[in-house]
Amino acid sequence: EEQDRLLRYRPDQPQNPKVLRIAIIGAPNAGKSTLSNQLLGRKVFPVSQKVHTTRCKAWGVVTYEDTQLIILDTPGLTSPFKAKRHKLEEAMLTDPWDSMKHADLVLVLVDVSDHWTRNSLSKEVLKCLSQFPQIPSVLVLNKVDLVKKKFILLQLVTELTEGFVNGKKLEVRSEVKHNSSSSATSPPTQASPSENRATESHCLQKADQAQEGSIWDNSRDMRDSESSLVTEAAGGPKRCGPRDIKHMRGWPCFQEIFMLAALHGEEVDTLKRYLLMQAKPGPWEFHSGVLTGQSPQEICDNIIREKILEYLPLEVPYGVVQVTEMWEEGPSGELLIVQNLLVPRKSHMMMLIGRGGKVISRIAQEAGQDLMNAFLCDVRLKLKVEVKS
Questions:
Q1: What's the predicted TM-score (pTM) here?
Q2: In CATH, what class is 296-387?
Q3: I need a labelling partner for 295 at 20 to 30 A (CA). Which of 36, 61, 140, 207 fits?
Q4: Helix crossing, 32-40 with 268-278: angle to 10°?
Q5: Per residue in 108-131, pLDDT tens?
Q6: Which residue stretches belong to region G1 (predicted)?
Q7: Domain 1-173+245-281: what homologous superfamily?
Q8: 212: which residues sit within 8 A by CB, 6+ positions away?
Q9: How far apart are CA 249 and CA 251, in angstroms?
């Protein structure tokens, strides 16, 4: 009722409100929901190691002082062929595109730990960017903590940007190490001038005021790298329009590049500060007390489905249908939830229950804990398993 009231009534407005709508797109399992949860500061979007955990677009709201960020968490961009093979809903195909139509800024998330996909943007992502070239875009390299050789990140940047960032050409230059002591004390790069010193940590900075300079930071991780990136003012595409993406592997119109590890929250605050600074004057769309547009029931379904995806193998969890049988408040203010999980085969039921009921008990326990953290109250969750009639 409180959630409905906040969504229904006119939002409170500060004296000089600012707002930014952010679409987060990328391939399945790139970490979009994990990043969204970190930006929100609470877990409201489902996360698992399996692809297609997010089945439809959902939004979250970050309200900080006079600024409101509206985060549009979308399903991973996939092709019609893959959607048909995995029996995915039509929303999996249309929702990312719908989010782009309403966005002021788009974050393109890339999983740099995936050796098979990290060297190029997917055709679906490139198609999306090319369709909306007027929307400013930012490249976010996620899971950088899993890349041991940091110079690989430099190579990925040049490939994923086609060699251009913010209209300036990037070049990789080798650093000659004379001896071990000099390499340990002298960082290979020098930070470029920028109006925004707060975001220098792990992003490639704008260098509008610099004729030539490095755009890498002096971070400890990058001191072992033998290469660095520099910008040249000439040669970059100043404007981006629709492009022939047939032979493209990257996008040459990114304004910034960030590197982070969303799962552990590393450098997420740096990205958040940047997003807050990109907000433009405009009225808030939601009350400051609103965290997400999902109903409590939707949050509950998503969290339970996240655990089912985590504990069931292969395609089995995608066939589970969730039916909520009870949702009410207990005598002490606790939330009582009973949900029936319907599966297509008896063998699937046995897998979901597990030997001695261990699997279903673990799912109920972990989901219940996440629900308590989301709703900030005691939750008693009971799960039942049946074969579909």
A1: 0.76
A2: alpha beta
A3: 140
A4: 70
A5: 999 999 998 899 998 888 988 988
A6: 26-33
A7: P-loop containing nucleotide triphosphate hydrolases (3.40.50.300)
A8: 230, 231, 232, 233
A9: 7
